[in-house]
Amino acid sequence: MAKKDKVEKMEEAKMDTVEQKKIPNMTDLEWTDYVLSLLSDDEKINGNPTTDGLRRVFEIALNCKVVVSSSNVVQTPDPNNEKRATVVHTLCYHLNGGTPETSHLNMITVDGAADVYWGNCDKVYRNHPVAVAETRAEGRALRRALKLRKVVAAEELAKDIEDNPDNSSVSKISNNQINFIDVMSQRLNINVVKLFKNNQLPTDNIYSMSHDDAVNVIRLLSKYQQNISEISEDIMGYSSDWK
């Protein structure tokens, strides 16, 4: 039995060696395809790798250990800069292997930068430029370290950009917020118009509501969801014609 186990282990070792030989070098044309093959289907969007996916396979592909992965916000959103956010993400990783004498040579640092504003961000995310910029910056740092060719992270692409919005529209309620309010109100049987009136919010044009007011409404609905008894009868009776 022991001899059989030994043979099986030897066969497994041979298979591992064969697999290792199949791994291309970073300078090979097949390298990019190899890295992308490590991703699962849900870690790609229209063929583009997600930042989460690249982060997961990073240490596998490079046979390394990430020591530092941090972001630095170098520009915060402000009306004077079109609410633009700029973030630099730093990756510091240590390649496995080598000797104690050469270990310092195996430490590599790579940066990736991204700036986000209404002109290069999907409308549904335009009120969160710092978060979007951070994700894009990390994706770029991962791509640079992995030396991927002709590959863009999924989060770096924008499909639904609002052309030339005025400064006020950038801070207005988003479609995601509207949909969330509608779903929650229907679930709780709350009349949205009455809810707005009770909280001194405009009801004539929902799209004129500010992003911050929408956040407060969502917080209130979440509170009601946790304790339905707090919903007063004068705001009950869901109606879908509030939008």
Highlighted features:
three-stranded antiparallel sheet; elongated; 39% helix; 7 helices; 2 domains; 243 residues; alpha+beta; single chain; two-stranded antiparallel sheet
3D architecture notes:
With 243 residues, the chain is α+β, with helices and mostly antiparallel strands. The chain contains seven helices and five strands. Strands 3-4-5 form a three-stranded antiparallel β-sheet. Helix 5 (175-188) packs parallel to helix 7. The longest helix is centred in the N-terminal third of the chain and has 21 residues, at 2-22. The protein is elongated.
Characterize this entry briefly:
The protein has 243 residues and is an alpha+beta fold. It has helices at 2-22, 31-37, 51-62, 129-146, 175-188, 192-198, 211-226; strands at 44-45, 48-49, 64-75, 85-95, 107-116.
For the biggest β-sheet, the strand order reads 3-4-5
Number of domains: 2
End-to-end C-alpha gap? 73 Å
> Major β-sheet, in short?
3 strands, antiparallel
Assembly type of the shown chains?
A: single chain
Write the layout of secondary structure elements.
Layout: H1 2-22, H2 31-37, E1 44-45, E2 48-49, H3 51-62, E3 64-75, E4 85-95, E5 107-116, H4 129-146, H5 175-188, H6 192-198, H7 211-226
Antiparallel strand pairs: 1-2, 3-4, 4-5
Helix pairs in contact: 3-4, 5-7
